[in-house]
Amino acid sequence: MFAALAHLPARVAVALLLGAPAALHAQQVQTPPPDSTPRGPVSRARAFPAVQQALLVNVFVNRLDVCCLDMPTQRVSLNSWSRNLRAGWEWDENQFGTNLFMHPYHGSLYFNAGRSRGMGFWESAPLSFLGSWTWEFLGENNRPALNDFFMTSFGGIALGEMFHRLTAMIRDNQAHGGRRLRRELATLPLDPIGGLNRFLGRRRVSQEPNPPEHTPGLLVVRLHAGARILSDSLIKTAGGLPTVMMDLVYGDPWLEPYHKPFDAFIVRAAIGEGGINLLRASGRLYGKEMTGPEARHRHLFQVNQRFDYASNSAYHIGGQSVEFGISSRWRLSRNVRFRTQVYLDGIILGGIDAPGTGVGERTYDFGPGVGIRLQGVLEIAGVPFVVYFLQSEYVHAVSGASADHYVEASGLELTLPVTRRFGLTAQGIDYGRLSRYSDRPDQERQFPEVRVLLSWTWVSRQRTPQ
């Protein structure tokens, strides 16, 4: 069946992507309960259409690439499938942004084929692996890439769950008319599969209770706009460049005990010269209170899944990792608290630039690694005003150069309030790297950076069961 689908024209693949799930919707499976995580084992009524749609995503993308973009690597056949299955994995030469960012986004489509149908986090996670594996072996005629499989699967789970929760927060099942439509359209870039399923199931217009993710307990959004001042020394500056940043805090591990993966997560994104300079996200997979909720000083043990993508003048790095450690909150007064974090992480697979030492045209290495992250935050009424951070990572290259890479970012961030929502933010960050090669001289880079930003902060607090 899949072999026949792979040779369909693009318009037919689109019809299948839209029509096949619609037929299943007609069989009383179109409306998951308001709580998007089901109680008990997942039913076949949710699992089968989710698997079907994850596979149809691959058919749609393959036909689009062939019929509209004329990409020869997507012209597949039974012979290419047989050859891929026999040859097995390789490391590909795709661009850094494609491997470290676009593949995880693609993986989120598979993941949210399950989440949008009422399946839970752990039930939807295998869809990312299934979709990624079938694409690597059956969606292209070149050999399957092991790095793509890791990035698409693990990155798709992390991005997919955050996208699922963010879109559930933006959508409003109680809204009407134009307000309802604008909210539905705003979520499409983050969760196109969920939006498609809502459209087919008429949930875009139906009146029903909002899921618990609609009100995450604590939501903090801080937007920054200003300039980056790059420097290769404290005296000689390279000039100021415009930059825009966003910080997002979803849920509060101190306010709500752990219930489900990613019921609390944080995101920092920065856009400037060259596009995305930073996208870093960390979501709670597990948490345990080590003290009582009434204690003056509280401590939490947490396990987080982390997504990293950073591009700066010292290094380009990205990857998927799992971190564990202790978060502490020290109460200084009624509204003033000092938070600390000490975390160790294991990098499942990371990519780091290594010009001239990659595979073929690729200019970066792949490998696993370990790292440490430290942070101290002075906050007033739950909003951070002074932040110190240090993050150090080690990546051992297994594809590319014979090398070990060490990177570090440390800095201080200060926000001075001007009005209730507006403030001035100054950031000083020092980036550094050391790459040790077995067959060539070591490389070392150090690059400080200063940012001066105007900040706008919005805070919402609602205590909601998870």
Approximately how much beta-strand content do the residues carry?
Answer: 35-45%
CATH architecture of the largest domain: Beta Barrel
Structural class: alpha+beta
At the third CATH level, what is the topology name of the largest domain? Porin
Main pleated-sheet profile: 12 strands, antiparallel, barrel
Radius of gyration in whole Å, from Cα? 23 Å
Low-confidence stretches: 1-41, 233-238
Q: N-to-C terminal Cα separation, in Å?
A: 41 Å
Strand arrangement in the largest pleated sheet: 1-2-3-4-5-6-7-8-9-10-11-12
- Put simply, the count of helices is 9
CATH class descriptor name of the largest domain: Mainly Beta
Instruction: List SSEs in N-to-C order.
Output: HHHHHHHHHEEEEEEEEEEEE
Write a structural description:
With 466 residues, this protein is α+β, with helices and mostly antiparallel strands. It has two domains: 2-211, no CATH class; 215-461, Porin. Helices cover 30% and strands 39% of the residues. It is built from nine helices and twelve strands. The chain has helices at 2-5, 10-29, 44-67, 78-87, 96-115, 121-139, 146-170, 177-186, 192-200, and strands at 218-231, 237-250, 265-272, 275-289, 297-311, 316-331, 336-353, 364-380, 383-396, 403-417, 422-437, 443-461. A hairpin with a 4-residue loop joins strand 6 (316-331) and strand 7 (336-353).
